Amino acid sequence: MTGTEVGELDRTLEWLVGPALDRLAGRLAEVADLGAAEAGALLSATRGALAETLRRKVVRVLVLELHGARLTGRLTAPDPRGRWDEFLRRAAEPAFWHDLTAHYPHLLTRLRAVVDNRLGAALALARRFAADRPLLRDLLGTDPGELREVEFGQGDSHRGGHTVTVLRCAGGVVVHKPRPMEVDRELARLLAVLTEGDDRPIRVPRAVVGDGYGWAEHVEHRHCADDAELDAFYRGLGHWLAVMRLVSGTDLHAENIIACGPVPVVVDCESVFTPRPPHPPTGAGEATDLVAEQLTGTVLRTGLLPGRGSGLGWRGVDGSAMGGLPGEQPAIGLPDLVGAGTDQARVAIVPRPPVPARNLPGPRPRLVRHWPRVVAGFDEMAARITGLDREGRLEPLLAPFADCVVRVVVRDTEAYAELGRMLWHPAGLHDQPAAEERARALLARHSVNTRGPGAPEVHRGEVADLLVGDVPVFTTTPAEGFLRTGGGLVCGPRVDQVRLALERWRTADLALERRITHAALVSAYLNQGARPELGRMEAAGEPDATGLDGRRRALAARLVRELAAEAVRGSDGTATWFAPILDRSGWQTTPLTPDLYGGTLGVAVLLAAYRREVAAGRADPVAEVEELLAGTVATARRTQVWWADQARHTRRRPDPVGSYIGLGSQIWCWLVLDRLGLPAVEDAVFLAGQVPAALAASEGPDVVVGTAGAIVPLLLLAERTGETRYADLAVEAGRRLAGDAEVEGGRARWPAPTWPEGIGGFAHGATGIGWALARLAGATGEGAFAELARGAAAYEETWYDPGSRAWRDPREPGSVVAAWCHGAVGIGLATADPDVLRRAAASGLRDGTGWTHTLCHGDLGTWELLVRALDEGVAPDGVTREGLDAAVLGSVEEHGPTTGLAREVYSPSMMSGSGGIAYQLLRMHPGSDLPSVLLLGDGPR
């Protein structure tokens, strides 16, 4: 929408806004010590803020009425632009809006409430500024002078249209915060003690505390000047991590921290000493519940650490204070007016890259490089805090927080935004009682899922706020601990949150906090493959080829024993782990999901394979394998039943259908487990019943998580059961891929949300999709699928660079990639062309070794490619099977199992962790007939 078109829409409500602003002008003229020019600045800002707010509320109604007028012939201009202008002239008349009340009975009442609230907030701001002007000298170091410019709307509106507001005065810039700010003052006092002696201490903005509101110093964002400042900045973030762990801080997302050179400044610290409800039961068993509850109480809760959103519209976005890296965010779909200026205008969801926030200390921070400073900063501040506690000084420092009003975020802003859009949608405006009932039902369900406030009167109050455009606010004081709503309702138990936070600090497992901090780094990136920041593992010398099988067996047994030691077990017989795992939203640190890539079913396949290899004499016994296999399978079965039950009784989005994340991966795992001696075909059949709905909701074409991932598991299930309906489902997936393909010049590519122009590679791109289609063509004999597979291979070839003798990485122009997920390894494994295999093997050996040991993007994936190249006689010169095995074993022995960005964190993942390393070590035995994970083999018969 252009600025001109925005102005045209805004004029439709001038009949309502104009007189209201005139009334405000009269009230502003009565404010003592407020100059005429200052009143003008306030009026101008109020007009702009009102226009933005009201436009978002009524744009769908206006578009609907525009189309209604066009379709019924009420617009008579000869062209689309003329009909747009004609409609807007009618919509600018008060009669137009009064007529709408027949269909939208409460529309005008609600619009007037929004206007009145915003005007009341503007008037309150004016009075406060005029009265407090002398006090602002403490923030500016000089007299503020004349108010020249006002910026409303720095954040959500609360409590009757109030927003954080920036005021630009002749003497400097100040920030008005319409909330109690005693907590800011107390946190500043605490920090003064904790950072005493620091060259660049972390801080909060200086504040002037008023009665229920306050003024804050305006913090200017600036990038760090050099590596020394960057190191100081990330050390400061580590300090903040420890401080916020101490004071039970939450909601520290990207917009609440500003990088002021080497100092990260927390500019909104209102959510400290906040109650933490117990984590609701997961439905996956006691082991998963134990892990979920444990993680909920750690530094993950602060919001500082990288993490990917899972909510509608923000899935995969890292909104954390430490993350939000440019180039590592998916586009987010936001409603916008498309085709404005014509009578074909419509509201559509438009994908847009997130705008980098002011939390970043540079244009493209190299987070991997500086992450050790975060961990070191955490350790340093944690030691200071513990030292103060030993001296008896910590408790008195925390006591003054007891009566400060703090905010408790019980639902994320996006949840409220979705409810607000529903309530302001034409359908919600037409039948407001039904829309309110639906909103209350959704809030009730959310409360059950999150252990949030569940009283019906609380939900009614939340809906009442949303009806007038406000985001509901819950507050408490740390001494009380129970929640207060904006309407004065009280809910929850009384708990002294200061004493509780102190107890939690004293009993904290700081080693666990450190491990979680290491793990969270992965979530900052969309991919964690061969990154230059990792450094390449170099061999100490020539590979040692002696005693290979004994060394292989010893390494595999060691990895399985480590797997057992890291397991969390429940008294109900379930078992799980927590680690950085990849799900549909991106990398998360959570209890394992039941997937192949990084989940419990991948671990179960490893354990069942190890049991089989021990029985065959090809692996050394490990005592706990049988018990752990049973516990892991029990967790996976409980989880899939629970998820299916959720899908039946709620509107939970269907699981993805991918071969590595989602239903396809789970079907494959159960079929392999069945081959490995665990009757499990019925589990696969149970999951296949969910595939039709999941296919219809599939969000992408790829193998890992999308449509192509359904094909091979369904073909295997059809073969195993003799049921053609599963093959028919695979064909449906193939036809969807055919319909989504863009074919030009014999080359086929598939646009995807993250890569609208298509991408190469096995995991997310053309090679993996083409491989699945080739398997489908082989099973069905349909030539169209085979032709499309050839087109995918031709497209992949466009990414090959003869100069570097490797495949370019479309994610990072100018670089090459040689992994299973992207580049040579996956391309070589998928191909039927000996020349492609030869080139891929050469690139894999040269470019794809020494980064990690994983299957997805490390040496054990490259090992499988080179073994195939040897078998087919196209391996690079000098490569032998003995030498290849010796190199892999020697690297794991020398460097330890190395698994990516979070190298310090244990991960049992099949694809990105030590689970896949152990599995490939089992397959390294010449007599092993275990199936390939990278090509979804059928398993031993």
Automatic annotation (TrEMBL):
| Domain called Lantibiotic biosynthesis protein dehydration: residue spans | 104-476
Alphabetically, which GO biological process terms does the record hold?
peptide modification
Q: Which domain of life is it from?
A: Bacteria
Q: Name one Pfam family in it.
A: DUF4135
Question: Sorted alphabetically, which InterPro entries does this protein's record hold?
Answer: LANC-like (IPR007822), Lant_dehyd (IPR025410), Lanti_2_LanM (IPR017146)
Record CDD domains: LanM-like (cd04792)
Under NCBIfam families, the record lists: lanti_2_LanM
Which protein, by its recorded name, is this?
Type 2 lantipeptide synthetase LanM
